[in-house]
Design a protein that fits this description.
Chain lengths: 80, 227
């Protein structure tokens, strides 16, 4: 199954890259932006046909490697 | 006194550290990241560099490499483990010291000399040093130390902040903070103070004609403390 996960910085953590992207968008004329936060996206093809088990495996990966829970949250957004 | 420097793929300060340790009396051995066992050592050093190309998060991949289980066991049994720069990033990713190192606040790679103040000398690294302010070199893109409020309080209660960025007089102010680190933190200990992680490179300050000698003071003192 293919499991998709996104990893985002927690709300209180400074995201300087997101800030610069915001400023650049602003300079390009996109004036309606409140805030930009940058994150990561993973697509992981696991050898498991049960969606619940596949989700569990990727959650385990997020907890142990893909995300640093001090500063980041993860969310499984799609399993197919 | 025996030391071991771990080389990860992408480490680039490992040989500098090897030279520094040998210069001040350690008998250093280089250890490859894919080895399982640490040689018998009084000190283990995780050097600076760009392990695994800084992929995913700096230090994240290296913290899961084979040798790290032995390093973690060594640290948990009271052994001295020091992580410099990328080594500090590997220490936070392995959970040996709290917090995390984020991208520098102003998104620039910083390469310059800074002054740091040693706050607490009740530990094997800084005990007996006869001054508090040291000039060291920093070279990093992700040195912006961050931790939760609870972690910060716990560290302050246990005197775990090792060094702060400051000016040449030891004044700790935001304007002397090069990278946005929380409270100007440049280095921290674990609770037991046998694990030290810091962004500055003492191994780059061991030659008067090249840079300065504050690193020499640090290493000379360190080996005397371990003896």
């Amino acid at each position: 199954m293919k499991v998709s996960a996104i990893i985002t910085l927690k709300k209180d953590v400074l995201d300087p890259q997101g800030k610069v992207i915001h400023q650049t968008l602003d300079g390009m004329g996109f004036k309606d932006v409140n805030e930009v936060r940058q994150g990561k996206y993973f697509e992981i093809d696991v050898k498991e046909n049960d969606p619940k088990k596949a989700q569990k495996i990727v959650e385990d990966m997020c907890n142990k490697l893909l995300a640093n829970l001090v500063i980041e949250n993860y969310k499984i957004i799609e399993i197919q | 006194m025996k030391s071991a420097v771990i080389t990860f793929p992408g480490s680039n300060c490992d040989r500098d550290m090897h030279v520094a340790l040998n210069k001040f009396g350690f008998k250093n051995q280089m250890v490859w990241h894919n080895d399982n066992e640490l040689p018998k050592s009084d000190l283990v050093v995780l050097p600076g560099g760009f392990s695994y190309g800084d992929y995913l998060r700096c230090g994240s991949m290296a913290s899961k490499s084979k040798i790290m289980q032995s390093v973690i066991n060594f640290a948990k049994s009271g052994g001295l483990v020091m992580g410099i720069c990328n080594g500090f990033q590997i220490l936070v990713e392995s959970g040996l010291v709290p917090g995390v190192l984020l991208r520098n606040k102003y998104l620039e790679f910083i390469c310059k000399n800074v002054f740091v103040k040693i706050d607490n000398k009740d530990n094997p690294y800084f005990k007996n040093l006869d001054k508090d302010v040291f000039e060291f070199h920093i070279a990093h893109n992700e040195g912006n130390y961050f931790c939760t409020n609870d972690q910060l309080k716990e560290m302050q209660d246990n005197n775990q902040v090792a060094i702060y960025y400051c000016n040449d007089n030891g004044k700790i102010e935001e304007k002397f903070n090069p990278n946005g680190s929380l409270k100007n933190i440049a280095g921290i200990f674990n609770k037991e103070k046998n694990v030290l992680g810091m962004m500055p490179h003492p191994e780059r300050m061991i030659d008067k004609s090249l840079s300065g000698e504050d690193g020499s003071l640090f290493f000379k003192n360190l080996i005397n403390n371990i003896r």
